[in-house]
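RETRY 2/3 - previous attempt timed out on the joint model. Re-submitting the same 914-residue input unchanged.
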Amino acid sequence: MSDVSMKGKGLGSLGAGLRQYGMGVALIVIFLVFSALSGGKNFTPMNINNLVMQNSYVVILAVGMLLCIITGNVDLSVGSVVAFTGAISATLILNMKLPIAAAVPAVLLLGLVIGMWQGIFIAFLKVPPFIVTLANMLLFRGLTMLVLRGQTKGPLPGGYTLIGAGYLPTWPVSVGGTSFDMFSAAAGILASLLVILGEVRSIRSRKKYNFAVPSLPATLAKLGVIVFLINFFTLRLAVYQGLPFVLSVMLGLILLYTFFTNRMVIGRYVYAVGGNIKAAALSGIKTQKVMFWVYANMGLLSALAGIVLSARNASATPKAGDGFELDAIASCYIGGASAYGGTGTVTGAVIGALIMGILNNGMSLIGWSVDMQRVVKGLVLLGAVTIDLLNRKKKR
Amino acid sequence: MNDHILEMRHITKAFGPVRALDDVNLTVRRGDIHAICGENGAGKSTLMNILSGVYPWGDYEGDVFHDGELCRFRDIRDSERKGIAIIHQELAMSPFLSIAENIFLGNEVRVFPGVIDWNQTRVRAREALLKVGGMEDESVDAPVESLGVGKQQMVEVARALVKNATLLILDEPTAALNDEDSRRLLNIILSLKEQGVTCIIISHKLNEIDAVADAVTVIRDGKAIETLRRGVDEISENRIISGMVGRELVNRYPRHDRRPGEVVFEVKNWNVFHPEVSDRRVIRDVSFNVREGEVVGFAGLMGSGRTELAMSLFGRAWGVGITGEMYKNGRKIDPESVKDAIDNGIAYLTEDRKGNGLVLANTIRWNATLPSLRRRFAKMNVVDHNLEILTVEECRGKLNIRCSSIEQMIEAMSGGNQQKVVLAKWMLSDPDILILDEPTRGIDVGAKYEIYTLVNMLVATGKSVVVISSEMSELLGVCDRIYVISRGEIAGELQKDEFSQEAIMKCVMNHIARERAA
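RETRY 2/3 succeeded.
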């Protein structure tokens, strides 16, 4: 192995890293701009808490949507599936008196089955995904209306609403008159340590194999930003009511799917199918199976989002999840996924979702109308993708 | 002075830090067929893109003079107005539109502004086809997708003619054509010359250049090395090659001394039907065998079914209603999917590396490990990145893949290097039988030699290789035994001592004659 190659490699991964950094920086800048405009309102612990809870479903959907987008397609049905699974969940609990511990797995299974139903058409009958999911968007919205008879079903019991609006156990300590949750703080510190440990391990293994390692200042800067962000969130949440339960669900999903896309063989196959389906097939990859499971997975995550949403609202409504598919798709594109398929990262999609969420939240705080919010979100999507494309062109 | 239709002076073009062209001068005489040769990535296409306005004036340094007049093209339309037309390597046609529509695409005959005059379109399209020749039987209303690649190429030429092109640039026009279609196209170029059209032709097929060119400019590493003119200098394949690689290439095929062993792979009575036209038998009762450490060639005209045969063997990746038997090391196998085939030690390198072989928007490392990822680079379905990097690095050295690093994107590489990545991909899957379909299509002499050397290396370790190629000289140069395929049947088998182009063609002709008689 020559020295030259090592340097080249380091530069290459830095370039990819920079793009993601750019997104992270944009996220912070947007947050600061709105904080200036709203007089610091978005810094309040309650707002941070709301930010997490309001955006949890979009993050969950964006993670699943990312896989669809990597294959070069989209899923338009997720909003309707969110509403339908929420409606079924409410019906199971309120009308059929099913215990929550049984209803939740049943609804998740239902989501998986819905995803498989779409997957059959897409993967094996070769109907274009755009059409299949458009049809199912209509179908499941209609079914939701039928199940709910056009009415809101609620209120859902307290045990259920914990999923969407509850908190992890707390360990409150009084600090200068305000309650402070030591558990949140401890979780933040633990997470920081884990991140640092992970980085050290990765650098060590790279050194062992004689691979290029990023420079010390770059590593320190990266770790500094991540540790700061983690603790900023946990400390803010500590002075509110502690860590929201959905935060742990989100984090779990992000870690799981990052591992899935980066490290697992099947994750690699998803990228291969999106990058060049013929080359993938001639490399021995069962492309139909990959497509099938990508959409089945999307169904499962839609059901999860449906449960979280209905739990947070303590009810199921016919209009629930309206337009969620567009938020999820936009998140992935803002996060750097290509509309042609083959590229995109979970981290990017999550950052994209957070950017959308902070925009929504910030504009609400400064009193902009929903109509205006749509205009701004549209412009941000258009701008982000255009800049990304121009950047890539320049590099060539 | 004014017998020069084109002069390009001191052309320099840089992409970032890379100088694709460095002070290149090119002078083309009116009415000549002027060939441009060079290895992949030497800068030929860049030069032509400057000439045709793809890279606008100001984007490069130096001057372009057409008919003695300084040109400052802003785009392709500007250059077309001067009568310069370019036919790109990848055909730029809309497959579902008719021949006539494609000929006038972007240049429509109009009754009123914005309204197409269909009668004139058809009449003039017909005229253009007649001028090109060889297309008399085709209806101008037929969709382009119904034509073979050779005829599509003719439509491209017709398209350039209706623009009143006086300077025609052809970028690798015969790369995708078989010998017969190539010859036809070259004849057309010769007849255009008689009609006063000047042609610039970029080609890797040196025998063609040898046959038609009046002048040859050799480009190496972004510099114009020399221009040879017929009547003044010697124009021969060897002369051009030595200019291209900067040294004498004594032999175009590496020497080999093989002693093939036992039969390791055998196919008996193989039949395959067309997936869309299910009563059309594309492969008929094909039986052949491959020995250990042997290179077996499949010769035949384009469309004879060689690719279809190979793909149907590769886990039924092509065709329906497949019947027949396949034996490996005497044991009957029946790979039902590509994965099965790979697991059984069979690998197939596709003829279309960009379309079917590689994921262009991903890295060398990523592409190279794709078929063997689960078996070789993963534990419990988790990929070992470090092992991946180490293995691919080693492969890069062994195959001499030129790149900034194994994390380089495939799309940024030259054709020859891309092909080496595809080869690396299949070498890493560790096959016993490696089927290479057109392994050197569109790549330069130097890279070809390296690929032949790799084949020798593989065979020396006891692997067996099947080579499918439209270049007969290549098969004669690298194979130990050749099967000739004609219309989906084995038309003959040639042993090493019977090798010659004539023998191959005789097999094909006899077979066709037998078919006619039957």
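The radius of gyration of chain A is 22 Å. Closing ticket.
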